[in-house]
Write a structure and sequence with these properties.
The chain is α/β, with parallel strands linked by helices and about 550 residues long. Helices cover about 25% and strands about 25% of the residues. It folds into 3 domains: about 10-255, ANL, N-terminal domain (Rossmann fold, 3-Layer(aba) Sandwich), CATH 3.40.50.12780; about 365-435, Luciferase, Domain 3 (Luciferase, domain 3, Roll), CATH 2.30.38; about 440-535, GMP Synthetase, Chain A, domain 3 (2-Layer Sandwich). It starts with 11 loop residues before the first helix and ends in an 8-residue tail after the last helix. The structure holds adenosine monophosphate. The site of adenosine monophosphate has 19 residues, from strand 14, strand 19 and strand 20.
Length: about 550
């Protein structure tokens, strides 16, 4: 027997309607290139979203066509998220930090028809214009006064375009499974792959991420997403913050600037901020130097890379801020886990809590996880056994865009192989030990490069560290530690290696340390281990 409930589609436009009606006065504050302090309300935002949707509908597009954005975190970019997807088109957010060849590849692969761009990315687009000939035109997200001189063809001004349009609009009743947004993985190996989100997956992901044990987001919050709108939907915050009616603060092009972020947090009374470890490192360095405190911030969700114990401790002890580590990936919309304290663990000591907080966290309801060995056998959740982490759920990709059936990232029984290696303990806390490709195989045992990197980065003289496995005549592979020293700090090889004593098993301690000026990074800020292994291909361990 079927239940008797309505079949109302889960649509992104319904978030817009809900927010405008219920949280119309809530504020969105942005720094943009043309205005250091732009403010307006949800009501203003969603009436401009409707103007944009009206404008797009007149451009001869069809539902499902890709319209790209290339922009920082600000209110106009948020309007694109809703105007494009809500009207039935696919919002393809492009990461402007990608190499030109990758930009060309993804724009052509996505078959983007129009690109909405910030003024500062116009030169980037001019440089590749003759290689992206399928793009019909460009909409520069500014007003007439700030329109740049450009060699691009068919260029419109965003403000002029939407000004002519009505602010009422009948959202199409789309199938909730129709595609809403597209984001490409950063592609450390091979071409970037497109992950195609749909309305249903987006709404379910937003429901799951606002719950108390995940982001714990409500209308009481003021949210500062320092994670880019151009990468994995800014961790879903354009939907989750709008769903609950939280105030939103956008730093525009000032994403990596510790001083701006600190001042913005204090002035706007930000309660929840989201970012990757590198950005928070810049923030903490600034607050330390300037003798400032994060006055209003209650918690920060950090993910995208492992979070060190020292960072969690500094947020807690100096700023009274709770760090919640999150783990996920582009293919997962992105949230898979979030680390919050579970009932029964309240009696842990401060130190034990810190240890727990260095784990990636517990699976959100909706994301099933399992770890398996090389033969696909399920491994126990005992905190010791480690294996390939596989996931399944309604906001996990079932395939890649235009690679259907050929990417080989899914198992025969329908799980997505994340490419991460992890342990899961009896309480359900998952900890990433490595990317599959980065695992160090020493004498038949696996050594976790992330664990060794975290220990190194807890040393005060270390700004950044990476550990790679290199060929060793006796042990197959041994770890080499590559360190970038913190500004004005020094640490010798012996001291660095001695730092590991008592922190990891003796046989895991790296065999050697080399110091470099900088590490190679991907467009999303992760260390490019492939490149690093290439750099040290001829390296020989000391006897
Ligand atoms: P992306 O698709 O660019 O978001 O990258 C996803 C990858 O980032 C994951 O597969 C992990 O390898 C890594 N990652 C994300 N969060 C964490 C975390 N908390 N700890 C360690 N690695 C992480």
């Amino acid at each position: 027997m079927q239940g008797l409930m309505m079949d109302a589609p889960l649509l992104i436009s319904s978030l817009a309607e809900h927010a405008a009606k219920n949280h119309g006065d809530r504020e969105i504050m942005s720094i943009t290139v043309d205005n250091p302090q732009h403010r307006y309300t949800f009501k203003d935002c969603f009436s401009r979203v409707k103007q944009l949707a009206n404008a797009l509908d007149k451009m001869g597009l069809e539902h499902g066509d890709r319209i790209a954005t290339m922009a920082w975190n600000d209110y106009r970019h948020l309007e694109c998220y809703y105007g494009i997807s809500g009207a039935g088109y696919i919002c393809h957010t492009i990461n402007p930090r990608l190499f030109p060849e990758q930009l060309i590849f993804i724009i052509n692969h996505a078959e983007d028809r129009w690109i909405l761009t910030d003024v500062m990315f116009v030169p980037l687009l001019e440089a590749i214009a003759d290689k992206i000939v399928g793009v019909e035109g460009f909409i520069v997200m500014t007003d007439e006064a700030h329109m740049p001189e450009t060699a691009l063809k068919n260029v419109l001004c965003y403000e002029t375009l939407i000004a002519k349009e009505a602010s009422d609009y009948d959202w199409p009743e789309l199938d909730e499974r129709s595609a809403s947004a597209l984001c490409y993985t950063s592609g450390t190996t091979g071409d970037p792959k497109g992950v195609l989100y749909d309305h249903r997956s987006t709404i379910l992901h937003a429901y799951a991420s606002v719950v108390p044990d995940a982001l714990n987001m409500s209308s009481q919050d003021c949210v500062l997403p320092v994670v880019p709108l151009f990468h994995v939907n800014s961790w879903g915050t354009p939907y989750s913050a709008v769903m609950v009616g939280a105030k939103i603060v956008y730093p525009g092009p000032k994403m990596g600037d510790g001083e701006t972020l600190c001042d913005l947090m204090n002035a706007e009374e930000v309660t929840l901020a989201l970012g990757v470890p590198t950005v928070w490192l810049a923030l903490l360095q600034y607050t330390e130097k300037a003798g400032k405190r994060l006055e209003s911030l209650q918690r920060t969700v950090i993910g995208g890379a492992a979070v060190t114990r020292s960072m969690i401790k500094e947020f807690r002890d100096k700023h009274d801020v709770e760090v919640r580590q999150g783990w996920g990936m582009t293919e997962m919309s992105p949230l898979g886990t979030c680390n919050s304290i579970k009932a029964g663990l309240e009696s842990l000591s401060d130190d034990e809590r810190l240890d727990l907080a260095t784990k990636a966290g517990r699976g959100l309801f909706g994301v099933q996880m399992r770890i398996v060995d090389d033969d696909g056998n399920k491994l126990p959740w005992d905190g010791e056994a480690y294996g390939a982490l596989q996931v399944r759920g309604p906001w996990v990709c079932s395939d890649y865009f235009k690679l259907e059936g050929s990417a080989g990232a899914h198992t025969d029984d329908g799980w997505f192989d994340t490419g991460d290696v992890a342990t899961i303990d009896a309480e359900g806390y998952m900890a990433i030990t490595d990317r599959t490709k980065d695992v160090i195989k020493s004498g038949g045992e696996w050594i976790s490069s992330i664990e060794l990197e975290n220990v190194a980065m807890d040393h005060p003289a270390v700004a950044e560290a990476a550990v790679i496995g290199l060929a060793h005549p006796k042990w197959t592979e041994r770890p080499l530690l590559v360190v970038v020293k913190a500004e004005g700090q020094d640490v010798g090889k012996e001291e660095m290696l001695a730092w590991y004593q008592g922190k990891v098993a003796t046989w895991c301690v790296p065999n050697d340390v080399v110091y470099v000026d900088e590490l190679p990074h991907t467009a999303t800020g992760k260390v490019k281990k492939i490149e690093l292994r290439r750099q040290f291909a001829d390296y020989q361990f000391p006897n």
